Amino acid sequence: MNVTLGPSKLGGTATAPPSKSYTHRAILASGYADSATVRDALWSADTRATARAVELFGGSVTRSDDGTLSVEGFDGTPEVPADVIDCDNSGTTMRLVTAAAALADGTSVLTGDESLRSRPQGPLLEALSDLGADAASTRANGQAPLVVTGPLSGDRVSIPGDVSSQYITALLMAGAVTADGLEIDLETELKSAPYVDVTIELLADFGVDAEATEDGFAVPGGQSYAPEGGEYAVPGDFSSISYPLAAGAIASEDGVRIEGAHPSAQGDTAIVDIVDRMGADVEWNRDDGTIDVSKAPLEGIDVSVEDTPDLLPTIATLGAVADGDTRITNAEHVRFKETDRVSAMAEELEKMGVETTETRDSLTVHGDESTIRGATVDGRADHRIVMSLALAGLAADGETTIQGGEHVDVSFPGFFGMLSSLGATVETAD
């Protein structure tokens, strides 16, 4: 689907979609449980992949008309799947489910689309093998398809922390239901650390203890997943909030209000401070969960995305409309997402007249040297690239057409409808 946007003036109220990160974890945690209800869940292409995996492990996931998920779990003991687990485009699904598969007393096969089959899984496979499972890549390259034969038998493992924090999340969630629990030693500094904080917060809500240690993380064994009252409510998603927030900073003189922005462990809450530092008018009422933002002259800043990799595309677009340079650092791990997001944003923004400088672990956007103009750009089959380029289209001179607009379904199915409701000129074509 191609989506065309014109320069727009925005105003009104947007509601934050539920968090994709929390929804993934909540669906799988409910699978580890006997049963649970997940309210306010994000139902997207990625989270549906996690739900399918729970069902292949012997559980069931039923969605009601109001979006509530009723999950019958496999109670800590996943069955051997009767079919291949297709994780589609969801890296979170593959990593979290790979560790769950290692608990089954038999063999599971996991695969995904072309993009997912290019993403690194090697460190997790090695960790599971060290814990007594047989975990391998069919192509012997550390990438899917994966074949995992359980069950796990070890209680301590070491793993690098600078490739993906999702490895740690996967091991913590699985380790809680093993007999002896699991101690995880980090071989390198942990990147995207707030995502592990999200995991520990959610585990606590499901009655599971896990903690940071001097060398990494630990989770006692023999635990049961059981949220208080049998229910869990998913908070709003600050990765997704970054888009209406940036849209307001770029294109709303009258202001945009964002609802559902309640504080949580999400590292991407940093976007509020980033937009404020760049000069937009921002006010976050944490008690009410509302953010008000309006347009003001933006200035380039230096931002590390070591712990907030999903924000890089949004920040790059903000830098394109700011004065001076916006330098995004500690970004090497952002290259291993649905696409290489560092190069993707550099190359696609350059089609729109934006000057950038790219290194292995940084992206600098030269706002002073840029004049944003409409162009046809490639969303790279990546939801965050699509949405960030749409933001650039709001401020471009002329129309911007984004190829692959349907990929917003991964995390923000109502994204273009939200922009339209705020006053953006949006046209879609198959």
Automatic annotation (TrEMBL):
<keyword id="KW-0057">Aromatic amino acid biosynthesis</keyword>
<feature type="binding site">
    <location>
        <position position="166"/>
    </location>
    <ligand>
        <name>phosphoenolpyruvate</name>
    </ligand>
</feature>
<feature type="binding site">
    <location>
        <position position="164"/>
    </location>
    <ligand>
        <name>3-phosphoshikimate</name>
    </ligand>
</feature>
<dbReference type="InterPro" id="IPR036968">
    <property type="entry name" value="Enolpyruvate_Tfrase_sf"/>
</dbReference>
<dbReference type="InterPro" id="IPR023193">
    <property type="entry name" value="EPSP_synthase_CS"/>
</dbReference>
<dbReference type="GO" id="GO:0003866">
    <property type="term" value="F:3-phosphoshikimate 1-carboxyvinyltransferase activity"/>
</dbReference>
<keyword id="KW-0028">Amino-acid biosynthesis</keyword>
<feature type="binding site">
    <location>
        <position position="192"/>
    </location>
    <ligand>
        <name>3-phosphoshikimate</name>
    </ligand>
</feature>
<feature type="binding site">
    <location>
        <position position="20"/>
    </location>
    <ligand>
        <name>phosphoenolpyruvate</name>
    </ligand>
</feature>
<feature type="domain" description="Enolpyruvate transferase">
    <location>
        <begin position="7"/>
        <end position="418"/>
    </location>
</feature>
<dbReference type="GO" id="GO:0005737">
    <property type="term" value="C:cytoplasm"/>
</dbReference>
<keyword id="KW-0808">Transferase</keyword>
<protein>
    <recommendedName>
        <fullName>3-phosphoshikimate 1-carboxyvinyltransferase</fullName>
        <ecNumber>2.5.1.19</ecNumber>
    </recommendedName>
</protein>
<feature type="binding site">
    <location>
        <position position="341"/>
    </location>
    <ligand>
        <name>phosphoenolpyruvate</name>
    </ligand>
</feature>
<comment type="subunit">
    <text>Monomer.</text>
</comment>
<feature type="binding site">
    <location>
        <position position="337"/>
    </location>
    <ligand>
        <name>3-phosphoshikimate</name>
    </ligand>
</feature>
<feature type="binding site">
    <location>
        <position position="166"/>
    </location>
    <ligand>
        <name>3-phosphoshikimate</name>
    </ligand>
</feature>
<feature type="binding site">
    <location>
        <position position="310"/>
    </location>
    <ligand>
        <name>3-phosphoshikimate</name>
    </ligand>
</feature>
<dbReference type="Pfam" id="PF00275">
    <property type="entry name" value="EPSP_synthase"/>
</dbReference>
<dbReference type="GO" id="GO:0008652">
    <property type="term" value="P:amino acid biosynthetic process"/>
</dbReference>
<comment type="function">
    <text>Catalyzes the transfer of the enolpyruvyl moiety of phosphoenolpyruvate (PEP) to the 5-hydroxyl of shikimate-3-phosphate (S3P) to produce enolpyruvyl shikimate-3-phosphate and inorganic phosphate.</text>
</comment>
<dbReference type="InterPro" id="IPR001986">
    <property type="entry name" value="Enolpyruvate_Tfrase_dom"/>
</dbReference>
<feature type="binding site">
    <location>
        <position position="21"/>
    </location>
    <ligand>
        <name>3-phosphoshikimate</name>
    </ligand>
</feature>
<feature type="binding site">
    <location>
        <position position="165"/>
    </location>
    <ligand>
        <name>3-phosphoshikimate</name>
    </ligand>
</feature>
<feature type="active site" description="Proton acceptor">
    <location>
        <position position="310"/>
    </location>
</feature>
<comment type="pathway">
    <text>Metabolic intermediate biosynthesis; chorismate biosynthesis; chorismate from D-erythrose 4-phosphate and phosphoenolpyruvate: step 6/7.</text>
</comment>
<dbReference type="GO" id="GO:0009423">
    <property type="term" value="P:chorismate biosynthetic process"/>
</dbReference>
<dbReference type="InterPro" id="IPR006264">
    <property type="entry name" value="EPSP_synthase"/>
</dbReference>
<feature type="binding site">
    <location>
        <position position="25"/>
    </location>
    <ligand>
        <name>3-phosphoshikimate</name>
    </ligand>
</feature>
<feature type="binding site">
    <location>
        <position position="20"/>
    </location>
    <ligand>
        <name>3-phosphoshikimate</name>
    </ligand>
</feature>
<feature type="region of interest" description="Disordered">
    <location>
        <begin position="1"/>
        <end position="20"/>
    </location>
</feature>
<feature type="binding site">
    <location>
        <position position="384"/>
    </location>
    <ligand>
        <name>phosphoenolpyruvate</name>
    </ligand>
</feature>
<feature type="binding site">
    <location>
        <position position="119"/>
    </location>
    <ligand>
        <name>phosphoenolpyruvate</name>
    </ligand>
</feature>
<comment type="similarity">
    <text>Belongs to the EPSP synthase family.</text>
</comment>
<dbReference type="GO" id="GO:0009073">
    <property type="term" value="P:aromatic amino acid family biosynthetic process"/>
</dbReference>
<dbReference type="InterPro" id="IPR013792">
    <property type="entry name" value="RNA3'P_cycl/enolpyr_Trfase_a/b"/>
</dbReference>
<keyword id="KW-0963">Cytoplasm</keyword>
<feature type="binding site">
    <location>
        <position position="91"/>
    </location>
    <ligand>
        <name>phosphoenolpyruvate</name>
    </ligand>
</feature>
